[in-house]
Design brief:
Layout (H helix, E strand, L loop, with lengths): L3 H16 L3 H15 L13 E6 L5 E7 L7 E8 L4 H13 L3 E6 L16 H12 L5 E10 L1 H10 L7 E7 L6 H4 E2 L2 E2 L1 H10 L9 H10 L6 H6 L4 H7 L7 H4 L1 H12 L4 E8 L3 H9 L8 E8 L20 H13 L9 E4 L7 E4 L6 E12 L10 E4 L7 E7 L15 H4 L22 E7 L4 E5 L2 E8 L5 E9 L5 E10 L19 E6 L3 E5 L4 E7 L25 E7 L6 E7 L5 E3 L4
Parallel strand pairs: 3-4, 3-5, 5-6, 6-9, 9-10, 10-11, 14-16
Antiparallel strand pairs: 1-2, 2-4, 7-8, 11-12, 12-26, 13-14, 13-25, 15-24, 16-23, 17-22, 18-21, 18-24, 18-25, 19-20, 19-23
Helix pairs in contact: 1-2, 4-5, 7-8
Length: 610
């Protein structure tokens, strides 16, 4: 199975099969497909029957909890999954797979969702509820003393949250896919909200049940001003958790003052068990995934896998990596890891390593760390015309040396006509909003050359393949007529035909000019300020003969919220203001692009993520 679409296909087959009294046959087909496509060993057991219990939390709220053991087994190692989604049957299939390898599975509805009691408030309750659930679990007669915490996306968040509490000694490992513990960059890009992630997800998951027409709710939220009241416009009542996210877009917001948020952020540094961590270069949680790995106390015992995937484990866009299995679960890595940590089966791959497959690679490489050692290539934004590329828009130059004299390039930014996002890693709306989301990944760019509210710069042809690894940075000397505004940039790979593919992107605002800025800095309209845009982490091979380009504008909607060019928080504003934007080129402190390029490092090719 290649993606969530495949999961859904199997899920529908399972439901239809059940109607025809053939559930077992369909489940067998699903698991045989998983085993064979991920090159897993033969099954050792059959799955038993499900049973349900209500587990009481410390405040009296009861959570619906389902239990599955291998057939004929009274005590087994157990995988704990805590789930908010109403596609429960997909996670039941995961549990069924675990059972076929001799592991039990506990699948719990999180607080406020599905059949569990309490109020739905994303992540806030997961530390305490995870702690209480583990306290209950290790006392059950069916557990053999070995527990794994497991989950993808939000389910991975619940697993990580449990590690921020008091872990029983029975917990031996945690397995997390496309999530992380430091969510600051996930929530906000210098004060701009990640609509394609958070707003879309809130539209889908506003309360106990998922929204039946989340796409319509999402579109209505995007268009409503002030955005702070978009929840009432779409759902008839405030969403307190969403409003907390909105008011936490800047440094020091209420979400970051919560003890739960800080405990989650710091948990990897205190963790005493190994972790299997899986991420994707086109996934919005990648920065959080990487920071989790960097701060992990047990990194020498752990493994990180990062592939060319979006949030569903798919490769989307124009660049595909061969030899990589497209599946969010990555069973080829997960099943051997669980069998090793829970059952003592030897692990078929080394720990303390990172397995990476980036855009342009021919498969996975095993590295000591990611990003690997790099050297910085500096390219200066130059007012001189770049050599024409057939089919490409006219561009100014990216040069190895700064121009001695200053020049300026200006454009007019109207928030009522934002640039439509094309590609990138910041969204999950494509996964569940029926065509309303932006397609992620290395997507071909279709921005028309006729639009004047973008500055394009194009570098020379690459003399050989160049691997970009890590975060590129763009330092811009800018002025604006507005009291505050945004500058948004994307890197593109331009081939000999002029086709431009999205590589990575980033943004900064005048009042939040650098990532280290501890508090918003007032701006005087018309004054010059340097802003530094930190691009999304990327692993990209720029092929010989291709050119690296950078496009500077002031919007990328709906991946990021539209800045309305006022000093008020954009979500409180109702009236957009047109801004005159200027980028200063050349001279002292010239605007420049800093690209991390990979140096020679010991890398071992591997056949898969495992």
């Amino acid at each position: 199975m290649k993606s969530l679409r495949s999961w859904t296909r199997w899920g529908l087959l399972l439901l239809l099969g059940c109607m025809a009294s053939a559930c077992g046959l369909v489940r067998n087909a699903v698991q045989a497909d998983r085993r064979d496509s991920h090159h897993l060993p033969a099954f050792t057991h059959r799955a038993g029957a499900w049973r349900t219990e209500r587990v009481r939390m410390r405040d009296g709220v009861e959570l619906s909890t389902r239990i599955l053991l291998p057939e004929g087994v009274e005590r087994a190692p157990v995988v704990l999954i805590r789930n908010p989604y109403d596609i429960r049957f997909l996670f039941e299939l995961d549990c069924d797979l675990f059972a076929r390898y001799g592991m039990g599975c506990v699948l719990q509805d999180v607080r406020g969702r599905l059949d569990s009691g309490g109020e739905w408030w994303p992540l806030v309750n997961e530390i305490a509820d995870g702690e209480d659930t583990l306290r209950w679990l290790v006392q059950q007669p069916f557990i053999d003393g070995h527990v794994a915490l497991y989950g993808m996306s939000y389910l991975g968040g619940t697993a990580l949250a449990a590690t921020a509490g008091q872990l029983p000694v029975e917990v031996k490992t945690v397995v997390v896919t496309v999530f992380g513990t430091d969510l600051r960059e996930v929530v906000s890009e210098r004060g701009l909200m990640t609509h394609e992630l958070l707003t879309a997800w809130a539209a889908y998951m506003p309360g106990r049940e998922s929204t039946s027409n989340a796409g319509a709710a999402y579109r209505k939220m995007l268009s409503h001003r002030p955005h702070l009241e978009a929840d009432v416009a779409s759902f008839g009542a405030p969403l307190p958790f969403y409003r907390e996210w909105l008011t936490s877009l800047g440094p020091g917001g209420p979400l970051w003052q919560r003890s739960e948020t800080e405990a989650l952020r710091q948990s990897p540094g205190h963790l005493g068990i190994p972790m299997l961590l899986i991420g994707g270069f086109d996934d919005p949680f990648l920065p959080a995934t990487l920071r989790t790995w960097e701060s992990l106390a047990t990194r020498d015992q752990s493994v990180m896998v990062v592939g060319p995937w979006n949030h569903l484990g798919q490769q989307s866009g124009a660049v595909k990596v061969s030899g990589v299995t497209d599946d969010l679960a990555q069973w080829g890595a997960v099943i051997p890891w669980l069998r090793h940590t829970l059952q003592g089966v030897p692990l078929p791959y080394d720990t303390g390593r990172v397995r990476v497959a980036g855009h342009g690679d021919s498969g996975f490489r095993e590295l000591p760390a990611w990003p690997p050692p790099t050297q910085e290539q500096v390219l200066y934004l130059d007012a001189r015309q770049a050599p024409a590329a057939p089919g490409a828009c006219a561009s100014s130059s990216l040069s190895a040396e700064p121009a001695a004299t200053e020049a300026e390039r200006s454009y007019r930014y109207d928030p009522r006509e934002p640039w439509r996002s094309e590609g990138g890693a910041r969204g999950i709306a494509f996964a569940f909003l029926r065509g309303d989301g932006v397609k992620p990944g290395p997507v071909e760019q279709t921005w028309p050359c006729s639009r004047q509210d973008v500055l394009r710069f194009l570098g020379p042809e690459a003399s050989g393949d160049m691997r970009i690894a890590g975060r590129a940075r763009l330092r811009l000397r800018v002025r604006s007529s507005a009291e505050d505004t945004a500058f948004v940039a994307k890197l593109v790979d331009v081939d000999a035909r002029g086709r431009a593919l999205h590589v990575t992107d980033g943004a900064a605002t005048l009042r939040w000019p650098t990532v280290e800025t501890p508090a918003l800095v007032p701006y005087v309209p018309g004054s010059e300020r340097e802003v530094e845009i930190d691009f999304y982490p990327a692993s990209w091979v720029l092929s010989k003969g291709h050119r690296l380009g950078v496009w500077v504008s002031s919007s990328s909607h709906p991946m990021l919220s539209v800045h309305l060019n006022t000093a008020r928080p954009w979500y409180e504003e109702t009236t957009p203001v047109v801004a005159a934007q200027t980028v200063v080129l050349g001279g002292e402190g010239a605007s420049r692009l800093i690209v991390p390029t990979e140096t020679e490092v010991p890398a071992t090719p591997v056949s898969s993520a495992r």
